[in-house]
Amino acid sequence: MRIVLVGPPGAGKGTQAAYLAGNLAIPHISTGDLFRANISEGTPLGVRAKSYMDDGNLVPDEVTIGMAEDRLEQPDTAGGFLLDGFPRNLKQAEALDGFLKGKGIALDAVLDLEVPEDEVVKRIAGRRICRSNSAHVFHVEYQKPATEGICDTCGGELYQRDDDREDTVRKRLEVYHTETEPIIDYYKSQDLVITIPALGKVDEVTRRAMAALGRGE
């Protein structure tokens, strides 16, 4: 299957993408991984991306599109793929359609993870990260540490990242509504969008998505 996964920040896209790709036996292709791989390998696109990022500028669409197209040329995508974080806007969506059309293939579905905005803010603004090891993540409501402000795993101090503050989260949501949400209507016009309620446990959301794709138990 060839799938695009969309949803607001905090919807659990990364987690669901990994589970769905594993269940469907297709590669999970995330924008973050594309950037890290191209930059670490020093590819021409990676060098261009890094130059923009080092100057504090946004990476142009054509660079992101180029990275995605290069990745989709790899042999492991022949049987399908799951795109997470790409396309991010209409220009990227149109470029993806053109690329796939040139290959004589098309998307099978666009999964839209639906989460109320207040829940998104609660999920992200409630995160607390360990200063000693950023892989240790807690939440003031959903995953409280035994001792407030202290990491259960290593005893490090827990803190709130600037990116997780409520005002920053709401700005990220504004960008999502302006730039990314329009691709949902774009794909609805192609009858590709499947809306998945993304509240509840991770495995419950995965089961809903798999059932919607006709791959449920």
Radius of gyration: 18 Å
**Beta-strand percent range:** 5-15%
Number of helices: 8
What profile does the largest beta sheet have? 5 strands, parallel
> Distance between termini?
17 Å
Helix-residue proportion: 40-55%
**What strand line-up does the widest sheet have?**
2-3-1-4-8
Structural class: alpha/beta
Total strand count, please?
8
Oligomer: single chain
Mean pLDDT score, rounded?
94
**Low-confidence runs of at least 5 consecutive residues:** none
Write the layout of secondary structure elements.
Layout: E1 2-6, H1 13-24, E2 28-30, H2 31-41, H3 44-54, H4 61-72, E3 81-84, H5 90-102, E4 109-114, H6 117-125, E5 127-130, E6 137-139, E7 158-159, H7 166-188, E8 193-197, H8 202-212
Parallel strand pairs: 1-3, 1-4, 2-3, 4-8
Antiparallel strand pairs: 5-6, 5-7
Please outline what is shown here.
The chain has 217 residues and is α/β, with parallel strands linked by helices. Helix content is 47%, strand content 15%.
Describe this structure in words.
The structure is a single chain. Strand 5 and strand 6 form a beta hairpin. The chain is globular, with a radius of gyration of 18 Å. The longest helix is centred in the last third of the chain and has 23 residues. With 217 residues, it is α/β, with parallel strands linked by helices. Helix 1 crosses helix 8, helix 2 packs across helix 4 and helix 6 packs across helix 7. It contains 8 helices and 8 strands.
Features:
217 residues, alpha/beta, three-stranded antiparallel β-sheet, 47% helix, five-stranded parallel β-sheet
